[in-house]
Amino acid sequence: MVSEAEMSESISTRLAWVAVDWGSSNLRAWAMDAGGAVLAEAEAARGMLGLAPADYEPALLAVIGDWLPAEGRITVLVCGMAGARQGWREAPYRPVPTALDALAEGAVSPAVEDARLDVRLLPGLCQGADAGGFDVMRGEETQLAGLAALESGVSGLVCLPGTHAKWATLDSGRVERFHTYMTGELYRLLAERSVLAHSLSEDDLEDSACREAFSAAVAEAAAAPEAFTRTLFGLRAMDLLDDALPDGEARGAVLAARLSGLAIGLELAGACGELAAGQSVRLIGVEALCRRYALALSALGHSSEIIANRRAVLAGLGLAHAALAHDALDHD
Amino acid sequence: MVSEAEMSESISTRLAWVAVDWGSSNLRAWAMDAGGAVLAEAEAARGMLGLAPADYEPALLAVIGDWLPAEGRITVLVCGMAGARQGWREAPYRPVPTALDALAEGAVSPAVEDARLDVRLLPGLCQGADAGGFDVMRGEETQLAGLAALESGVSGLVCLPGTHAKWATLDSGRVERFHTYMTGELYRLLAERSVLAHSLSEDDLEDSACREAFSAAVAEAAAAPEAFTRTLFGLRAMDLLDDALPDGEARGAVLAARLSGLAIGLELAGACGELAAGQSVRLIGVEALCRRYALALSALGHSSEIIANRRAVLAGLGLAHAALAHDALDHD
Description:
Two copies of one chain form a homodimer. By secondary structure, the first copy, chain A, is of the alpha/beta class. Chain A has nine helices and 14 strands. Chain A has two domains: 1-138, Nucleotidyltransferase, domain 5, CATH 3.30.420; 144-332, 2-keto-3-deoxy-galactonokinase, C-terminal domain (Nucleotidyltransferase, domain 5, 2-Layer Sandwich), CATH 3.30.420. Chain A has helices spanning 4-14, 56-64, 140-150, 183-193, 208-223, 228-241, 248-271, 287-299, 309-331, and strands at residues 17-22, 27-32, 38-44, 74-80, 94-95, 98-99, 117-121, 125-127, 135-137, 156-160, 165-171, 174-181, 281-285, 304-308. The longest helix of chain A is centred in the last third of the chain and has 24 residues, at 248-271.
């Protein structure tokens, strides 16, 4: 049996750098070896929303401290909200269009007390009025960079579903433009805090009635986006009047699937305009949500391909780390 | 000087019937004489959401008790949520298409203890899937009846802005179909509970910057309803990036005006499809909100005419009262 101390020692002797995805509510860290393999991973519920600048270094050490060797300086490469203005230190947004292998150029180093730490915070991306309309992202650019690392010179439309879903148009490994849709937040507000809350329960897209209601709603919202706020109230009216709906828990589940379909369908009506015929959408994110988007896309006749969140983030941080290392060699 | 007792006596000797608009949060009552003039009016913050069935009669008497003569039976005609399933007693919805002068046919009488009261609760309207899509209204039908009373044989598109805005298509004094848009509730959720809350303050459409932002957003949402959830997040990005916006309080006001314009513009994109060229929209509701809608309609090149809430409700209750009185004569 290997003791915890022996395990840590085995990590610290092989540790080349640390990859960190530090969001609004969580931090996830991976101990990386020189070949890009993951030696260990850890996480904590310590996100930007609950941290003052001085809290970041202790929060980081609590998660990765055991991995660090006694001597030497380890690069800790961080993407996400830790680099926001309200985060550890601001890594200013880089404007699009921009190359995804150049993110490291915008990294900033916060002051640290522990001499073993060389922390680099990666920047987010911003877009001006003329470049496609005001927009910002922070964290997703690293997932996009991961895609560029996994598929050199990647082009096409990429969707990162979530509270604020991002759609990026890539061309030969560059972000040409991107758009954020407030779909996830809108769904949650409507499902939890509107008059609809009493009509809804949790949906289950494995269930055929939910699946059908979801797909029909996607097609309906995409075909008539101008009716969106009308179809929202229609959910309440259906609950009162529609005898064809199932009773009890199943009724709320079908109505929730329909609301989800309406919200995602409205998003797709806006986002899929950039999709060339026959072109597939790459989806990066958590599995269940990506599968929901894949179903929505298929309801509109579009195909898609899912790339797991973790794989994309690690590849993106790896690409930035390679650029930093290369840059360091150049300057030696 | 006239004492309060003398005033009540003067009302009760001339009182012919009582008109009541009883909504989710308030009740408003008017003492009417035989010629249709208002002798007195009163209101209380006692709505359907805070009342059990047994609470309605005492709540009504607390407001109108002083008006009632010692003897005789007075008709109290009530529209609104008091007739909902969760209200005093259910007055079942009448399906559209339906004539607006026939609402009284669907009135129900709740049991009362005070022998002076003859309470009639007016029904709401419902719409089936085949008649224009599932929808319901309760209260607004009486405002529409008021319009039919003020303008015999009225036809055209009528909008009643609010938490759940109603659009009704009238033809010769009949409701052909109607649609509810969840605009007001959606705006409030986004303005108060979403990520946008920190970027917004209260708008003022008398201010030219707010007015311009509002009108531009109406036109933008109506022209590209599929971009709605994208333009929502765009408000956050504008707050972060747009140097052309004013600073301080004025910044939040302009962004709030823009959010309001986007939400109402999306509604108009759906609702104005039924509007024939050159046709005007009748707006019934509270003054400030109707003026906001009138501005939105004018941004899309449509004219409108505002009918005050109180005038429409009183005329609608008056029409129903006349029908009841006529019916009583027929049966005498």
